[in-house]
Amino acid sequence: MPLSIIHFPHPTLRHRSKPIVRVDQRLRDMAAEMLDLMYANEGVGLAANQVNLPIRMFVANETGKRGEGQEWVVINPEIDRPKGNEASQEGCLSVPGVYAQVKRPKSVRLQGYDLQGNELNMELDGFLARVMQHEVDHLDGVMFFDRISEETKRDIDGELYEFETTFESLRRTGNIPDDAGIAQQIAKWEEAYT
Ligand SMILES: [Zn+2]
């Protein structure tokens, strides 16, 4: 089945993804499919949780355009050494149309692996640092609006409520499995890759 982007409040977005221990052709194909979805939806990053895969992998390209800038597929990312602080507007492909100012460290270190198994170890700064922090948050089950003030949150609560209403109706009509069904899907993926 082709991958598709899931929207808040789908439970997989709240799942803390486990590290990947096996890279095979299927995983490489899924990474390519995630890049396709990211570009098609004019995003700059997409985490595996957002396509209902509970594994530690994300894709990113800060330009949002195929063939421009640098394209990243990062496996088992870890972030540390935060420095500075900066607030800037963020959005998310799992809550399309919702934006808010999010305060984050200005620079961080990112470690992880690419699809070929090469070790990544980079100091990130500026927009790319923000994008990758947002994606690693997804892998830990964290949404960008978990990191905003209560006051800012009140501005977007109405929009989030609409996503909740849509989700409930998709569940009622059987388009999204119940929690037990989703837990089963998650267990299947974890068995295969983590
Ligand atoms: Zn996001």
TrEMBL record:
Fe cation binds at C92, H134, H138. PANTHER family: PEPTIDE DEFORMYLASE. Removes the formyl group from the N-terminal Met of newly synthesized proteins. Requires at least a dipeptide for an efficient rate of reaction. N-terminal L-methionine is a prerequisite for activity but the enzyme has broad specificity at other positions. Binds 1 Fe(2+) ion. InterPro entries: Peptide_deformylase, Peptide_deformylase_sf. The gene is def. Its EC number is 3.5.1.88. It comes from the Bacteria. Keywords: Hydrolase, Iron, Metal-binding, Protein biosynthesis. The active site is at E135. Its cofactor is Fe(2+). It is an enzyme of class 3 (hydrolase). It comes from Neorhodopirellula lusitana. Belongs to the polypeptide deformylase family. It catalyses: N-terminal N-formyl-L-methionyl-[peptide] + H2O = N-terminal L-methionyl-[peptide] + formate. This is Peptide deformylase.
